[in-house]
Design a protein that fits this description.
2 copies of one chain form a homodimer.
Chain A (H helix, E strand, L loop, with lengths): L6 H5 L3 E3 L2 E5 L12 H13 L7 E9 L7 E11 L3 E10 L2 E11 L7 E2 L11 E2 L12 E2 L1 E2 L1 H6 L9 E7 L7 H7 L6 H6 L5 E10 L3 H7 L4 E11 L2 E9 L5 E11 L2
Antiparallel strand pairs in A: 1-2, 2-4, 3-6, 3-12, 4-5, 5-6, 8-10, 9-11, 11-13, 12-15, 13-14, 14-15
C-alpha cells in the first residue's frame, strides 16, 4: 500500500530501532511554527496501527498538543491500556529530548454490520467551487487541494459574523484515503478565529478529537476522491475557543466528525 | 465548599492513603450496569484538580471508558505529562484489581480576558417545560431535575426522525456548580439511539470529551441555577454512533460543549 513517492507516506515512514519507534518531521508538512497538527495526529494514530498488538479499526482518537513539536526526530510510544474482546484502548506519547510533546488516546474496535442512519443533513456545496490559491498558506497546505465556492473565496480576509466554511479537501497529488490521512484531513480547517476576525495573532490547537464513521471497506470504496468539509466555531472565551467539522463524501456519506479546542491570545 | 450532605460530594469524596488516591462508587450514581459515566468522568477530572501540582483551570477533558467499572473501590492515578507556562496536560487512570478500567487526558490553563463571541445560536426552550418523571430512569438520574417541553415528553417511547432534545438540567437538590459537576451534567443525555429508535439494546459510551467555556468566576456567578441542554446525534454506523450537546445558562451563556462516541449492538 505504501508509496513513498507521496509526501504523506514519507512523513509517516517510521523506523523501528531496538524495539522503539522513531519518526521525523517532514518539511513538506511544516506549519508556521513546527509541523502541521494534522500530520502529528496522523503519526499518533499510525503508532497504534503498526503496533504488533493492535486489534480492530480506529473508532476515535484524541490528541493533546502538550508542547511545540521541534523539527527533527521524535519517538512514538504506543501502549495498549486495555484490550477487551472487541475494543482496544490506547495511550500514545510523542517524545523529543526526553520530554513529552504530544499525548493521545485512541479506541480501536471490531466493526459489525448494524442498523445505520445519519441524522445530520448533508450540506450542499455550491456548484461554482474552484481550487483555492494556496500561495499564502503554510507548506502543509500545498499537500491538499481545496475547492471553494465563489462566495466563500470573496469573504477571505474580511471580518465575518460567524466562522462557517464549506469546501472540498483532497490529497495533492490524490492518494487512496486511509485512517491516518482521514485524521490529517480533519485538521485542515484553519483556526476559526482567523476566518471570523480576519487578523493574525498567536493561536494553536490544544486538543483534537476525531470520531471515525468509516471502516476500512468504506475507505477503500472512497479511494482517492475528494471529501467535503463543513466547519464552524461555537464559543470564543478568555483564550480558548472550540470548533467542529464534518467530512463527507460527495455522495453524502459522513466519514468523520471532529472537534478541537484552540488557544488564542487576544 | 464541600458539603457531604449532597450525593455528588459523597461520590467524589476521595481518600489519600500512602500518597495514593482512592475513591469508591456511590449507589446513588448507579447506572443500569456499574456507575453513571458522568460521575466517573467527574472523578477523573477531580483527580487532577486535587493533585498538589495542579495549575490553572480545566479547559478540556477526554475520558475513555476502557472496561466496565465495578461497584466498590477504585484508585485514581493522575500524572501531569507536561507543564508549561500557562498550560498543563494530564493523563489519568482509574484502576480496579490491578487493571485499568478508565483513562483520561485533560488540559488545564490560566485564563486571561480576551475578545469574546458565541457563534452558536442560543436555542429557545419552550415555555411549557415541566419536570420529567424520572421513575423509569436508573438511580443516577434521581440526582437531577430535568424540565422538558410538552412536545418532547409526548415523543418519549416513540420512534423519531432524529434524536434532538432540549431540556433543563439541575442537580437535585440544587448544588453550586463546579467543574466536576458541569462535567457530569455533560453526560446526562441518554444515548441518542434510545431516543431515535425507542427500544432498549446493549449500548454504552466508549469515549467522552468536554470543552469548558466557563472559568471559575463564571461558575460562581451561575451558582446552583439550572442549565439548558441541547443534544443530537450525527451518524450511527456499524456498532458506533456519535452525539454532541451544549450546556447553556438560561441567560444564553454557553458553558460547555461535549461530544461522545457510543457503542450499540444491533
Amino acid at each position: 500500500m505504501t508509496n513513498l513517492n507521496h509526501n504523506f507516506d514519507q512523513a509517516l515512514d517510521f523506523e523501528l530501532r531496538d524495539g522503539r519507534l522513531f519518526g521525523k518531521t517532514h518539511p513538506a508538512y511544516a506549519n508556521m511554527i513546527g509541523p502541521f497538527g494534522g500530520i502529528t495526529a496522523a503519526a499518533m494514530l499510525k503508532a497504534c496501527i503498526v503496533h504488533p498488538d493492535a486489534q480492530g479499526e480506529p473508532i476515535t482518537l484524541t490528541v493533546n498538543f502538550a508542547a511545540a513539536v521541534q523539527n527533527g526526530e521524535f519517538e512514538l510510544i504506543a501502549t495498549p491500556t486495555r484490550t477487551g474482546r472487541s475494543t482496544q484502548h490506547w495511550f500514545v506519547q510523542m517524545v523529543q529530548n526526553d520530554a513529552v510533546v504530544t499525548t493521545a488516546t485512541a479506541v480501536f474496535a471490531t466493526r459489525r454490520e448494524t442498523w445505520q442512519a445519519t441524522d445530520l443533513p448533508f450540506p450542499q456545496l455550491a456548484a461554482d467551487a474552484e481550487p483555492f490559491n494556496r500561495d499564502m498558506m503554510p507548506p502543509w497546505a500545498q499537500n491538499y487541494t481545496f475547492r471553494m465556492p465563489g462566495e466563500m473565496r470573496d469573504l477571505i480576509g474580511k471580518e465575518q459574523p460567524n466562522a462557517e466554511t464549506l469546501h472540498t479537501i483532497q490529497d495533492n497529488p490524490p492518494r487512496p484515503i486511509d485512517f491516518p490521512s482521514l485524521t490529517a484531513m480533519a485538521d485542515v480547517f484553519p483556526p476559526r478565529i482567523l476566518i471570523r476576525r480576519a487578523k493574525f495573532a498567536p493561536m494553536g490547537t490544544v486538543a483534537f478529537t476525531i470520531y471515525f464513521h468509516a471502516d476500512a471497506a468504506a475507505l477503500t470504496a472512497h479511494g482517492d476522491s475528494e471529501l467535503i468539509g463543513h466547519a464552524r466555531a461555537n464559543r470564543y472565551y478568555n483564550r480558548y475557543f472550540d470548533q467542529s467539522a464534518e467530512l463527507w463524501t460527495p455522495a453524502g456519506e459522513l466519514m468523520a466528525t471532529t472537534t478541537q479546542i484552540v488557544y488564542f491570545k487576544e
